[in-house]
Amino acid sequence: MHARGVSHRRAECPVARTVDVIGDRWSLLIVRDVLDGIGRFSELQRNLGLAKNILTTRLRELVAHGILEVVPAADGSAYHEYALTPKGRELFGVIVALRQWGEAHMFDEGEPHSRLLDSEHQLPVRYQVTDAEGRPITAGDAFVRKVRQHP
Question: What domains lie within the chain, and their CATH numbers?
Fold first, then answer.
């Protein structure tokens, strides 16, 4: 039994296993904030408005799963910060995909919201699913090959 319900850590589905690790809203928002350069516990707590015990638990889980690591503070002080590991940085595409979906479906026409821009040209970042040859595809162009086919 998982702390928050049923565990999918042995599931054949990669989505189920991933949701076990980053599927709650706080973990994804922590990853978002660390991607945005927020690494200190106090800054994360202030930005998220999250209780210390919940933040502590989520940070501990993200470190245990190799998504975050504890590093010395960038300013050379005695504090430590949380930084994304290479595995954690690979969640960038997930965050961009969630952002794009939110921009398309969670705001009224013309309603202001934050924007993700590329550093060099300051143009909006777009995430697109492609096939192995780089052609854009949609859900109708793909299928899941199950490990076991159920009747």
Answer: 14-141 (1.10.10.10)
